[in-house]
Amino acid sequence: MTDDKQAKSHTHVETRGAHDLGGFLNYLLAHGIDARISREEMPTTPYEERADAMLLLLSNAGKGLLNIHAMRRASEKFSHEDYLKLSYYDRWLRAIVALCIETGIFSTQEWEAKKRQVMRRNKFSQQRQSD
Amino acid sequence: MGKKQGFLNGQFVRVKSLWSAEHHRVPHYLKGKIGQVISCLGHVENPEMRAYFKDNRDPYILYRVRFTHAHLWGGNKMDEIFADLAGKWLSELEE
After folding, report:
1. Which CATH number applies to A44-106: 3.40.50.300, 3.40.1370.10, 1.10.472.20, 1.20.1420.20?
2. Does the CB of A20 have a partner CB in chain B at under 8 Å?
3. Which of A36, A38, A112, B79 is an S-S bond match for B69, by CB 3.0 to 4.6 Å?
C-alpha cells in the first residue's frame, strides 16, 4: 500500500503521534528525517548516564513515581518535529519533566525558575572561563 | 472490546481497526491486518492503564503474531514481521 492510500484511510499522518509513523517513509524524508538505522556504536556521554540514572531513581526501581508506559505516553504527545529531531535521551528528559509537572512533583513555575537559575550559572562560568 | 482473549497457536487473527487517542501499543500499520498467532506470551502489565498510573485490572495477554511484508507493504513474500500484541486488540478471523 502506498503512503497516500494508507494516510487516507482512518486518520491522516499529520494527526497521528510521531511515535506511530511506521511505513510513512516519504513523510519522514520530506521532513528531513534520515530513516536509515545507524549500526554504529555510539559512545555514552555523561549527560545520557545522568538521564538514565534520573529515570531509574524516579521509576519502579527507585521512588516508583514514573513508569516506562507513562514515559512513552508523555513522548507521544510531542510534536512530530520535536519527537523526530530530539535525541533519544533529550526525549527522555523532556518526558520526565512533563510527567513530574503532571504528577505534581514540581510545578511549571518551579521548573522555569530552576532553568533560569542554571542558565545564569552556566553563563557566569562561561564568562569566567573566557576572562 | 470483548473479554475473550483465547487464541491458539497457528490461528489467523485480524488486528482490530480501532483509532484511540489514548496510549496503546498497536502500530497504525498493523491495524486491520491479518496475521498468524505464533505463541502466547502470557499475562503482562497493562500498558494502557499503567501509562495513566492506573492499576492493572483487565486481563492483558500478549500474543506473538506473524505478518508478511507482502500483506503489510506489498513487498516480497518471504519477509515477515513479528509483533507482540494484546489479545484485546485481536479478533478471530471471520469465515
Report:
1. 1.10.472.20
2. yes
3. B79
β-sheet bridge partners, residue B35: B13
Rounded Cα gap, residues A37 and A25, in angstroms: 13
Domains of chain B with bracketed CATH: 12-92 (2.30.30.50)
Across the interface, which of A10, A23, A69 has its CB nearest the CB of B23? Answer: A69
Give B33→chain A minimum CA distance, Å: 12
Q: What are B44-67's pLDDT values in tens digits?
A: 999 999 999 998 778 899 999 999
Chain B residues with CB-CB distance to A67 below 8 A = 50-51, 53
Q: Name the one residue in this structure whose C-alpha cell is 506489498.
A: B74
Domain boundaries, chain A: 1-37, 44-106
Please enumerate residues of B whose Cβ is less than 8 A from a Cβ of A.
Answer: 17, 19, 23, 27-29, 31, 45, 47-48, 50-53, 72-74
Within 8 A of A95 by CB-CB distance, chain B residues are: none
State the ipTM, two decimals. 0.84
pTM: 0.82
Q: What is the pLDDT along chain A (131 residues), one digit of tens a residue?
A: 444 444 344 457 777 788 888 888 888 888 777 777 788 888 889 999 999 999 999 987 778 899 999 999 999 999 888 888 888 999 999 999 999 999 999 999 999 999 999 999 988 888 877 77
| Host H or E run for residue B35 | strand B34-43
